Amino acid sequence: MWFEDRSLSNMKLSSLIIEEWRDIWSSKGEFIIVTLAYLFGFTNLLNIPRLILDNGGIAFLIAYLISLLLIILPILLLEISIGQLTGRGPIQTFYNICPVFKGIGISQIIFSIILMAMMTRFLGSIFLYIFHLFWTITDDRSGLPWLNCKNFPEYQFGNCFESSTILPSNISNFSQNRLATFNEDSAFEQFINIIDISSESISQIGKIQINWLIVQCIIWFLIFCSICFGVRWLGKIIMFSLSMSLILLFILFGKTFLLSGSFQLFYDLFNENEWFERLKEWQLWKKAIEQVIIATGLGFGAFCTLGSYNKKSNNLVKDIFFLLIGHIIFVSLQIFFVLSLVGHISNKNGLSPIEIVLQGENQFRQILVYFSFISYTKIFTGIFLFFASLTLLNILFILSFGILATIEDALGEKWSRCCPRFTISLLICCFGAASSIIFATQSGKYIYELASGYLKYSTLMVILFFELVSVAWIYGSHTLGLDIRSMIVSTISWVIGHCLLYINYILTPIPIAIAVINLMGYSFAKYSPQIKSWSWSEWTGIGIAIIPLLPILLWSLMVILKSCNYTPRTPLFMRLSMAFHSPLRNQLIKRNEHQSSTVHHRLMNSGENTNQNTHSSSHGASTGYMLLPQAPLVFNKINHKLNKTLI
């Protein structure tokens, strides 16, 4: 079957076997750029400033950097290497690594779908900010409706004061927050209540809000346009969007870094006297490790998908160091941008930085208010909103493409003729848009709060734990290191990669430990009254958190039971071991002779049929696929490889 044949053609062992049928990146640079876009870490913009202020300044940055080097680097290498080794999306990758843990890939896909539906809600709010920004320009109104009361009576329904108002500490809605952003009479809160009409309870779904539905449909249309033509088109799209977002971030950094008061804040942070003592606190390390895992996007299967489109000879060990350096640069720019603004506002108004910095998505609204304290508020607000939009769209593009790759892997040749990539992309985006509708309703705000609140406790960490168990322990970090040796030429690179993979043995307990600590701190009391008013809210939240994890358990049980019932004459232990044994080795050894003879047969006929076969290869491929120049039917390249091998 073509689907099985192409899975072998993406594997190693024989230098004659090279990529066939499945697209690969146009260049190595595309892979680096797309992966950097995923590693941009927009969550750092919202979380790290507060984490730095709460955890000893430089102490947290040191813990974050060490976590990057000792935890993220080995796991990043692991995820990219299994994708490059198997040439498949998450589900088929984990089946090839360990059949009993194929459910890990299914869990990653389900978790990605839920996350994307939620992200469209947050990104939709950014699109609405952009719309109202341009509306104020075209309508020739000064100020912005979420910052100013004057000139925007249609967005007010009572007493109003500007969002940049400094409140007395005893009337602040948020602990220690002195800006009026979240006060019920502020321009920001009244603006939000106008554009997002909420029901009185999460159980009252209410009407679909047209403005939210439109922006969510626009988001899914953009996703469709980015993935419908395959990985090479995705690379071009993200190359443009990442370049634009970097330019915008540099503009913001250049504007804010030289503001008065910014240097004083950095001086205070880097001269923290007790930073070494803070490094002895386990809570600081827990927060740093959790943040770095979330910021880099491990556990979603995205790196596995991106790595699967590499050439098998790609030096992925060298790549991960470039990616890590890029992530550090991006995070540094984001930290300097936000903390420079905070330092300027603190110096200008005599406030402590801790009094105006929040964490999470509330910090996004705070940043929008920060711009009211600098000149050219509209211009820099627009730059920031476009920067945020492009950064989040890149993540959505990559996660959606992971789903597309998984479906293409599952369909095979016959079904891919009926369902070309364009059709599959359309179906994915239609399903995503349908799943996002619930967040466009009048209870969408509370559903979003409930889902995001419960998913952050342990779901991702549990998935990452099982990923490390299956790859590092069952398949074996040592075995994967040998696979890297067979894929890349550089001796130094595979030795370094092999050593890094060994670290994953001791990293395995870390994700599950973080999950347990988070569950120990669980509290339903922190949710909005509109959520707590429904008696089933807590159980619904628990269900949302558990659903992505069920495939791991259910698939494992199914495979183990199936193995127990297979060939009764075989000892039970051997039957069970078959469920955990990777099929990679068996398939390669079994088919290596067949593939070698096939390639030699093609080489025999290459002299007289090269043009004809090359033409048929480009037109005979399945609909939605392209037989690439790297395919075995391009005989001149294979002939060169064969001669080189014989010599």
TrEMBL record:
Entry GO MF terms: amino acid:sodium symporter activity; L-amino acid transmembrane transporter activity; metal ion binding
Organism in which the protein naturally occurs: Meloidogyne graminicola
Subcellular location: Membrane
GO cellular component: plasma membrane
InterPro entries from the UniProt entry: Na/ntran_symport, SNS_sf
Protein name as annotated: Uncharacterized protein
Family matches, as PANTHER family: SODIUM/CHLORIDE DEPENDENT TRANSPORTER, SODIUM: NEUROTRANSMITTER SYMPORTER FAMILY
Keyword presence, Membrane: yes
Keywords carried by this UniProt record: Disulfide bond, Membrane, Metal-binding, Sodium, Symport, Transmembrane, Transmembrane helix, Transport
TM segment ranges: 31-52, 58-78, 109-135, 210-234, 246-267, 287-309, 321-342, 379-407, 419-442, 454-475, 510-527, 539-561
One Pfam family this sequence matches: SNF
Membrane topology summary: Multi-pass membrane protein
Biological process terms in GO annotation: amino acid import across plasma membrane
